[in-house]
Amino acid sequence: MNFRVEINVMTKKEILDPQGKAVKLGLTNVGINAIKDVRIGKHIVLDLEADNEEDAKQKAEISCKKLLANLIMEDYHYTISTL
Amino acid sequence: MNFRVEINVMTKKEILDPQGKAVKLGLTNVGINAIKDVRIGKHIVLDLEADNEEDAKQKAEISCKKLLANLIMEDYHYTISTL
Question: Would you say residue B83 has pLDDT above 90?
């Protein structure tokens, strides 16, 4: 079966996000003043083949832990759907 | 009211994603072979103040169109939730 795993990798809350700060300033400059906070991370879409959802979940976990996220500085969340 | 807008900005399907290709190769190298496709984009979390959900949606639209997404090369999707 084919699954789509959508992963969000974000820096942990305790860690400063200078890219987010820059975007917040940029939004103020284009006239949007109501922004309180901006954080920017990665959105990764994996299309993969797996026997079942449990298998897909396992592959997603390994991918995040081994390659996609730096667990010291980043958190990840993902959702799995069938294709 | 405070809202959280979660925006995903991805390059359009027709456009090559070299970063995704590199990650696909990287995943193969760490032993995950079932990956068919990888695409990488940005995940942006905006915390903002708005009168109501309609107002928040409008602010999110303006933010995406004016600053966050390059509409020639990228698509965006967002979800809005209350904080």
Answer: no
Q: What is B2-82's CATH number, 3.30.1280.10, 3.40.50.920, 3.40.50.720, 3.30.465.10?
A: 3.30.1280.10
Structure tokens at B6: 């979660």
A23, A35, A45: residue with CB nearest B48: A35
A-B interface: how many C-beta pairs under 8 angstroms? 103
Across the interface, whether the CB atoms of A36 and B49 are under 8 A apart is answered yes
Q: Is the pLDDT of residue A83 over 90?
A: no
Say what the ipTM of the complex is.
0.91
Cβ-Cβ contacts under 8 Å, A38 against chain B: 44-47
What pTM value is reported for the model? 0.92
Name the residue among A43, A45, A67 with its Cβ closest to that of B26: A67
| Every domain of chain A and the residues it spans | 2-82
Residues of chain B with C-beta less than 8 angstroms from the C-beta of A49: 34, 36
Write down the pLDDT at residue B79.
Answer: 96
Q: Kindly list the distances between the CA atom of residue B3 and the CA atoms of A9, A64, B36, B62, in Å, as whole numbers in the listed order.
A: 21, 28, 36, 15
Q: What are the CA-CA distances from residue B51 to residues A30, B1, B59, B82 (Å)?
A: 19, 6, 11, 11
